[in-house]
């Protein structure tokens, strides 16, 4: 029988015992199941990036002159590569960037490059390559007449619009870069509106092209495609993109020259810059309906790294916005099928294989994981999956056997900086992504990783080795209800079991002292009138299960 010891800071005020609400910071760390590592995250509305341990203690931070745009990564030399936000009125869109910076361990700025003008801006994510170059996502601003000239239907074109480009840049000096490769969505459009245009055709006959008059999700005049993540596979020399507003992921060839990337031939796969693979929503190229849609405003598409469980498969954070089964997020894994030459295969319905997911990861109650925007997932060495529920600033780690949450943390930083424990936050503490780095990560060499205090102000005093109820858990999802909470004289147990049963009921205080240890039946009242006000923990042991609840007694 596993034993938990719980420590919660209690505050005595006016002779009565009160407790802080636990709203931010550390919630769970099951050290027997979680991956002991350091988690990197950057609050979207603040100019600091944080590194914490599994106990929610701050290990390090970096400061910038800019709030976060989205992507932030530690490199193997210990430097931090981070995107920043510069307000640009031509691109008032979520994920707006404008600058990318490289800082040393002490936040000294080593290099920065500003990509921001009336016509273009960087946005969202980037990918650092082994040769030191960087792949950037770029929005380009198009005027209405330019869009119509490309075959856009004027009836769906109410104003100017942004389209996507990908740049590969080579950093130069401390504040410059050279563009050494480009891909542009403009070069790979097809439309069936204006037969006089050279890109006229039937989108259903050209899955390798982008249907210019398809409208997915989001205001088209702001960000028609809305790329939000980029990944690169060195072995195949392919770029993987998440296309949020099309509810698809795309793969394109990076082996091309810039000239080949603008056309339909050339490169290792002979298709120039055309799409090699697309998946998630065949309606985007007229080969399906809403019933065939698998992805819903997804983010963070990536190939799982070699040597990790499910290596080389594609992992996607599927936000689940407007999912027919209900709004919930999931981490979806797919295995594209290829022939001997590496060409991606189509199924009998002429949509790209696979037909469905290889695996889907959710919390045990799927509705307990949901973020309408942003979000990320990372496969860890031990087979667990780190998930960022971005809008709520929540980071959780799920083990693969029972989808159990074994680590949970909520970002305690809003646009003004760290908040006090007990502060109720509603979207002001969003983070784009979270990444865990192993203690043996080469970027940590030569640096002391000493845990300090929790980031939040007035933190609780807690025992990190213990496990408390998830902030998202609901008693009604378990086999028991313990109520009322807070309790005055009695606690009532109500079970969903249809037959009689016997279980062990143990109630402990915050220092682990057992106050009640009894056997209970299906429905029973338990007298707690003699106990002092404060936090307590109830653990119910059945024959093969264990349930833990956090309760408050307040007479």
Comma- or semicolon-separated keywords:
555 residues, Neuraminidase, 2 domains, five-stranded antiparallel sheet, four-stranded antiparallel sheet, 2 helices, 38 strands, globular
The profile of the biggest β sheet is: 5 strands, antiparallel
Percentage of residues in helical conformation: under 10%
CATH fold field value of the largest domain: Neuraminidase
CATH class of the largest domain: Mainly Beta
Q: What is the number of E strands? A: 38
Q: Biggest sheet, strands in spatial order?
A: 3-28-27-26-25
CATH superfamily annotation of the largest domain: TolB, C-terminal domain
Structural class: mainly beta
- Please state the overall shape, judged from the principal axes of the Cα atoms: globular
SS strand fraction: 35-45%
Helix count, DSSP H or I runs of 4 or more residues: 2
Overall average residue pLDDT: 89
Report the oligomer: single chain
Rg over CA atoms, rounded to whole Å, is 26 Å
In terms of per-residue confidence, which ranges show pLDDT below 50 for 5 or more consecutive residues? 1-19, 466-478
Distance between the termini: 32 Å
Describe what this molecule looks like in 3D.
By secondary structure, the protein is an all-beta fold. Helices cover 2% and strands 39% of the residues. A five-stranded antiparallel β-sheet has the order 3-28-27-26-25, with no helix packed on it. Strands 6-5-4-31 form a four-stranded antiparallel β-sheet, with no helix packed on it. The radius of gyration is 26 Å and the shape is globular.
How would you concisely characterize the structure shown here?
With 555 residues, this protein is mostly beta strands. Helices cover 2% and strands 39% of the residues. The chain has two helices and 38 strands.
């Amino acid at each position: 029988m596993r034993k938990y010891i719980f420590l919660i800071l209690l505050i005595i005020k006016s002779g009565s015992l009160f407790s802080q609400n636990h709203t931010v910071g550390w919630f769970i760390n099951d050290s027997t199941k979680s991956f002991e590592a350091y988690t990197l995250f950057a609050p979207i509305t603040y100019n600091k990036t944080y590194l914490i341990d599994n106990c929610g203690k701050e290990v390090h931070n970096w400061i910038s002159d800019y709030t976060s745009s989205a992507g932030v990564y530690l490199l193997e030399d210990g430097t931090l590569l981070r995107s920043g936000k510069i307000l640009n009125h031509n691109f008032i869109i979520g994920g707006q960037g404008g600058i990318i910076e490289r800082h040393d361990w002490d936040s000294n700025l080593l290099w920065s490059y500003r990509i921001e003008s009336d016509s273009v801006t960087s946005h969202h994510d980037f990918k650092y390559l082994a040769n030191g170059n960087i792949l950037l996502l770029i929005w380009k601003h198009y005027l209405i007449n330019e869009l119509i000239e490309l075959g856009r239907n004027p009836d769906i074109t109410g104003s100017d619009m942004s389209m996507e480009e990908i740049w590969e840049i080579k950093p130069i000096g401390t504040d410059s870069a050279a563009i050494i490769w480009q891909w542009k969505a403009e070069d790979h459009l097809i439309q069936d509106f204006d037969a006089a245009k050279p890109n006229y055709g039937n989108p259903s006959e050209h899955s390798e092209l982008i249907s210019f008059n398809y409208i997915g999700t989001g205001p088209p005049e702001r960000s028609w495609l809305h790329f939000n993540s980029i990944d690169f596979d060195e072995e195949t020399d392919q770029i993987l993109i998440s296309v949020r507003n099309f509810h698809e992921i795309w793969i394109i060839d990076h082996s091309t020259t810039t000239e080949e990337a603008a056309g339909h031939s050339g490169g290792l796969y002979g298709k120039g810059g055309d799409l090699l693979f697309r998946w998630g929503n065949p309606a985007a190229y007229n080969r399906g309906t809403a019933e065939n849609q698998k992805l819903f405003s997804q983010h963070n598409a990536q190939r799982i790294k070699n040597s990790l469980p499910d290596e080389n498969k594609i992992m996607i954070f599927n936000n689940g916005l407007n999912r027919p089964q209900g709004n919930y997020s999931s981490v979806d894994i797919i295995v594209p099928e290829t022939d001997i030459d590496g060409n991606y295969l189509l199924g009998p319905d002429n949509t790209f294989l696979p037909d469905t997911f290889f695996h889907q990861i959710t919390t045990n109650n799927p509705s307990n994981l949901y973020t309408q925007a942003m979000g990320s997932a990372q496969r860890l060495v031990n087979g667990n999956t780190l998930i960022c529920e971005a809008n709520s600033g929540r980071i959780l780690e799920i083990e693969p056997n029972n989808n159990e949450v074994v680590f949970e943390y909520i970002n305690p930083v809003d646009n003004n900086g760290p908040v006090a424990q007990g502060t109720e936050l509603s979207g002001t503490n969003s983070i784009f992504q979270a990444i865990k780095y192993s203690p043996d990560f080469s970027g940590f060499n030569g640096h002391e990783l000493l845990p300090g205090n929790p980031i939040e102000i007035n933190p609780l005093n807690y025992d990190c080795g213990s496990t408390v109820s998830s902030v998202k858990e609901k008693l009604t999802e378990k086999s028991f209800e313990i109520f009322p909470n807070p309790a005055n004289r009695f606690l009532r147990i109500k079970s969903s079991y249809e037959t009689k049963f016997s279980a062990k009921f143990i109630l402990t205080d915050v220092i682990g002292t057992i106050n009640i240890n009894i056997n209970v039946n299906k429905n029973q009242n338990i007298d707690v009138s003699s106990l002092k006000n404060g936090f307590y923990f109830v653990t119910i042991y059945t024959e093969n299960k264990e349930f833990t609840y956090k309760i408050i007694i307040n007479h």
